[in-house]
Amino acid sequence: MTPAGGSMLIHVPAVPSPRVGTASGAAAPDRTLGTFLRACRSRLSPAEAGVPVDSPRSGRQVKGLRREEVSVLTGISVSYYSRLEQGRAQNPSAPVVEALARGLGLGTQERGNLHRLAGLNPSLGPPHAQAGVHPSLRQALGGASSAVTLVLGPCLDVLAANVPAQAVLSPLGTDVNLLRTLFTHPPKHVFFTDRHSTARILLRALRANCARRPQDSHLSDLVQELSALSSDFAAQWALPEGRADSGGACTLAVAHPSAGPLTLTYRTLHEEATTGQRLITGSPASGSRDSQALTYLTAMSPSL
């Protein structure tokens, strides 16, 4: 809605949002990745991993592998692996994650979980690149205006995005899945400013997609994965279903590190029935600070 009278010119500085964490302002370490690594380490015995087994008289107290044994299996130093488990080291490189997956004997699904927790693309499941976008939606995306426009898959993967959408979502990296971002990734603490409302909107969309596509194994796999990784997701998914997703407008607010608070109203412009992909557009209120923030982000985007 356009405010009455003239709009005020507001400068949007490129200042990062305050970090969320302890009372002193220091960010608390995120231990989601570490919890997953500890669980994998504790269930793998030395015999299964192929490392020398202690003698019965050694009085071994550790359940599963020791950190030193993980170091031997992966080639990763004990100190760095310890920091990963403790949440003091984050965003390990792809070679490190692959070494961990091999050393801990992870299967396909667990390997994918490890990559996602590390903020990397597991290269699993259906293609999430723009090449996988339905031609009609790709064409509509190419002709999109200055509004935030993106294509979402049934699992709420961001399959493609125009420049304004890329600018808004840039803090989340590449190969973004909105549900994984909200429930399992560190950016959830600083990106979505109204986490409860965002969760309600995304879960409503996921329930609707599950109802429309009951044979889609990727949807059931996602629900199983998130239920295992996030007690919050599991609790909310177990609640009685709310009203069905009507495809109407919804409002999402984020805290962008370069532009501060940003609130956009999203609408579904088109849904492709065969693939379940949706073309979504997000717009700020005309003349608002949100509008100026979006203009600033788009202008500063390296994609231009």
What report would you give on this structure?
By secondary structure, this protein is of the alpha+beta class. The protein has two domains: about 30-115, lambda repressor-like DNA-binding domains (434 Repressor (Amino-terminal Domain), Orthogonal Bundle), CATH 1.10.260.40; about 130-300, Beta-Lactamase (2-Layer Sandwich), CATH 3.30.450. It is about 40% helix and about 10% strand. The protein has helices spanning about 30-45, 45-50, 65-75, 80-85, 95-105, 110-115, 135-140, 165-170, 180-185, 195-210, 215-230, 230-235, 290-300, and strands at about 150, 160, 250-255, 260-270, 275-285. A five-stranded antiparallel beta sheet has the order 2-1-5-4-3. Helix 5 (about 95-105) packs antiparallel against helix 6 (about 110-115), helix 8 packs across helix 13 (about 290-300) and helix 11 (about 215-230) crosses helix 12. The longest helix is centred in the C-terminal third of the chain and has 18 residues, at about 195-210. It is elongated. Mean pLDDT is about 80; it is low at about 1-25 and about 125-130.
Oligomer: single chain
* Alpha carbon gyration radius: 22 Å
- Largest beta sheet, briefly? 5 strands, antiparallel
Overall helicity: 40-55%
CATH class of the largest domain: Alpha Beta
Structural class: alpha+beta
Q: Quickly count the domains.
A: 2
CATH architecture of the largest domain: 2-Layer Sandwich
Based on Cα principal axes, name the global outline. elongated
Please provide the ordered H/E string of secondary-structure elements: HHHHHHHEEHHHHHEEEH
Number of strands: 5
Mean pLDDT: 79
Strand order, sheet with most strands: 2-1-5-4-3
- State the low-pLDDT regions, or none: 1-27, 124-131
Q: What fraction of residues sit in β-strands?
A: 5-15%
How far apart are the termini?
A: 29 Å
